[in-house]
């Protein structure tokens, strides 16, 4: 994209000079044109319309070729977009055309989100371009531009008014893409109905604040034809790739029992006008508008979202570098903060766990102490018992020794006095016998009395 | 992008696209900035006037050589010229004082600074959030005037071109070529081109085209480089024709005569065929070089990226930051995991230790308990034995006592004579 693509204002401070002869810079436009031809052109059309409304047929008719068309069902769960790119050539001009079709538009029960995939697609193309533009090493001059340059919105030929889906969708898209509304299958509307329909549509668009694409009036060469065409909007179109013999020519037409609708007959429909405006006269303007208006708006919003500003709080202009520097500082600070936070959390956990374990350790220690005490107590008790026993043993021992001391000789367990002992034993027995006998006599006496 | 070739079955109409582009470009108008560098007195102003067939430099607006400066200045004159419905805003950038000092070291610096500042302006306006018009004041071409010594390039020439060839399209010209004979000129050109190649100076190159015819013309021009030019503001009558030329006693050196000098080649190339290409090369090559260097410096925080890494990243600084952020997140996750692992391990260790201590404690407790119980039992046994022994002994003692008493009584009775 050469810098000369962006609109320029006349420079103040430049003095006009007259030329004394032919210098030759009037070839500049040719130089530019030659370069574009060498590079090739690029155009992207988006067609939005209900299933079966004739989008693919119209594309085929407009570009006089047979694009790969898939017949879609009415049962798509969501709106999808299908993009196909073709390389076309007409005389020495090469065109890379991308046709994007909506699939399943208007088929769902709940159409509230129907416009979203379309908006997302358009934004995605802008985003891709923006990313390329922001790259450090970029190659914009041979970048394949995928941004949507024109959006053909197919209106159902109800003959009455726009559907609310149409208004909602167009309202969401009018600041993102050049919208060219067309009345599809115009061969089902009569001329008078069509006139009323067009007026109704335009007034509804105006009252709802929908900005459709206006053919530009700034260039005197084409201002006149564009003004006229602006008055015919929206174009009522008929598409057909079949040929019918009319007179002695084969023309693109639709054959009905009651007549032949000729696509390229301006009395029958506005197809030729559409082709003229879309392709022959304003294709370049559509591309330019997309770049200088819609893309710039997207870019501005995106950059503002990311926090970029043209001036700092003191309203001094901020250079790109400053912005990037500031962002970078912010970014690094954020990373550092995250890191610190994570560390902190960890330190906290470690502390907590340490405390927990310490507590467990303390508890264990306590139990240990307790058991120790218990043992000590028991041991002490045992010792006490032992001591008592010892005491008893000693006192018993003492008693025995004492008793032994008190005994007359012979009563010791000494072997020397054994004889005496024996005697004593005898005596004791005798004594006992005597006692026993005495006791017996006493008893006998008692018995006798 | 998968694309297919399709053939058209009839008229579509996009063959008018070139016309549409033509129309729009005429409406927009054109801009071109040309820089002229060379010592004073080499005929720079005259050449400009001759090129554009206008009095850009006049008594009112004197050319650089007439403005004697102590140091190298960079000044610009803006003029608006129209031809065939095409409007051109032409800016001529002068460098009065260049090469005129006794010590010319660094006299190219103000020029480099000027070129960079124009790139900077463009970069800033391109990077604004609100972009309206982006005036292109970048230097599209630099005509470098070589003094016609006939010998070779001067050190200043070489130095200047080396420093500027990667910033701007440099077109070296042999000035005042009417002081050289064709042979001298031929030699001089060869010498200059040899030196240019030797010093690896990249002067502006004509682009290759698909057109055979054009390529042949380009080759012819290439053989004549550097172009030897003559300029003149005066119109002289030669053979009934009014031509621009320089009147000498021995004849007239005609500016637009290709036998006399390469002026027409220069004019055709500079204005009629390659003006747009000069702009494109400035935009796509020189400016992009400046921009990527500038932005890379910002991304890597001022560290000289060209030294640190071999290649410049293709991402935007923001994408770069995004990637860095992602890397950082991954790094932190890894760190977190590692720390977690270490933490878990340590906790496990500690817990295990505690368990072991507890088990040990339990064991010791059991052991002690057993020990004490055993001791108890032992003690009980001992006591029992003792008690038995004691009660036996006591019993015995009683018996003894009784016996003793019995025997005493017996003795007593014996004494008393009671026992028979």
UniProtKB/TrEMBL annotation, chain A:
Ranges in coiled-coil conformation: 321-391
Q: Which InterPro entries match?
A: G_SEPTIN_dom (IPR030379), P-loop_NTPase (IPR027417), Septin (IPR016491)
The protein's UniProt keywords, in alphabetical order, are:
Coiled coil, GTP-binding, Nucleotide-binding
CDD domains per UniProt: CDC_Septin (cd01850)
PROSITE patterns for the chain: G_SEPTIN
Task: Give the highest taxon in the source lineage.
Answer: Eukaryota
What region holds the Septin-type G domain? Answer: 39-305
Query: What are this entry's molecular-function GO terms?
Result: GTP binding
Q: Name one Pfam family in it.
A: Septin
Q: Which family does the similarity line name? A: Belongs to the TRAFAC class TrmE-Era-EngA-EngB-Septin-like GTPase superfamily. Septin GTPase family.
Instruction: Identify this protein by name.
Output: Septin
The scientific name of the source species is Xiphophorus couchianus (Monterrey platyfish)
Q: What is the lineage of its organism?
A: Eukaryota, Metazoa, Chordata, Craniata, Vertebrata
From TrEMBL, chain B:
Q: Which residues form a coiled coil?
A: 318-416
InterPro entries documented for this protein: G_SEPTIN_dom, P-loop_NTPase, Septin, Septin7
Quick one: a GO biological-process term for this protein?
cell division
Pfam families for this protein: Septin
What keywords does the record list, in alphabetical order? Cell cycle, Cell division, Cell projection, Centromere, Chromosome, Cilium, Coiled coil, Cytoplasm, Cytoskeleton, GTP-binding, Kinetochore, Mitosis, Nucleotide-binding
What region holds the Septin-type G domain?
28-297
Listed GO molecular functions? Answer: GTP binding
Please give the CDD domains that the UniProt record associates with this protein. CDC_Septin
Pull one GO CC term from this UniProt entry: cleavage furrow
Q: Where does the record place it?
A: Chromosome, Centromere, Kinetochore; Cleavage furrow; Cytoplasm, Cytoskeleton, Cilium axoneme; Cytoplasm, Cytoskeleton, Spindle
What family, per the record? Belongs to the TRAFAC class TrmE-Era-EngA-EngB-Septin-like GTPase superfamily. Septin GTPase family.
- PANTHER family for the chain: SEPTIN
Name the record gives this protein: Septin
- Organism name: Xiphophorus couchianus (Monterrey platyfish)
Q: What are the top taxonomic ranks of the organism?
A: Eukaryota, Metazoa, Chordata, Craniata, Vertebrata
